[in-house]
Amino acid sequence: MQIDLLYFDGCPSWQSGLENLKAALALEGLETEISLVQVEDNSEADRLSFLGSPSFHVNDADLWPEQRETYALSCRLYATPQGMQGAPTVEMLQEKLRDFATH
Fold first, then answer.
1. How far apart are CA 56 and CA 62, in angstroms?
2. Which residue from 24, 53, 72, 99 has the fewest beta carbons nearer than 10 Å?
3. In this structure, what CATH number is given to the domain that contains residue 53?
4. d(CA 59, CA 54)
5. What is the C-alpha to C-alpha distance for residues 103 and 101, in angstroms, rounded to an integer?
6. CA–CA separation, 37 and 7 (whole Å)
7. In what order do the strands lie in the sheet with 3-7?
8. How confident is the model over 34-50, as pLDDT tens digits?
9. CA-to-CA distance for 35 and 95, rounded, in angstroms?
10. CB 51 within 8 A of CB 71
11. Which of 65, 70, 67 is nearest to 43 (CA)?
12. pTM of the entire structure?
């Protein structure tokens, strides 16, 4: 399982997203390396179909996919049980990782 965390340097939430991802992997008993992918500019965001920071890709697929016309450096929001947050919860990540681990 290849996991990439896409982010841009000005995002205040990518580090908490990384910590939640590490916790979710540990709770699921999955040992895999996390590659940090820093998106530098809007042209790179467009090339990577970057949905905002942080974005979580497993085997090159976004865990929360959506279609867009344009892509840019931006922060991403996730609908969590606690409301809109800058990163998914550990439990949300566990659920998505389980889906990939069983397929």
1. 6
2. 99
3. 3.40.30
4. 16
5. 6
6. 6
7. 34-38, 3-7, 55-58, 61-62
8. 999 999 999 999 999 99
9. 20
10. yes
11. 70
12. 0.93
Q: Rounded to a whole number, what is the distance in angstroms from the first to the last CA of the chain?
A: 11
Separation in Å, CA 32 to CA 10, 21, 44, 66: 26, 11, 25, 25
What is the total count of domains within the chain? 1
Two structure tokens written together for 69: 């016309």
Asked whether the predicted pLDDT for residue 78 surpasses 90, the reply is: yes
Cα 75 from Cα 26, distance rounded (Å): 26
**Dist CA 58 CA 41 (whole Å):** 22
Range of the domain at 41: 3-101
Tell me the residue type at 79.
A
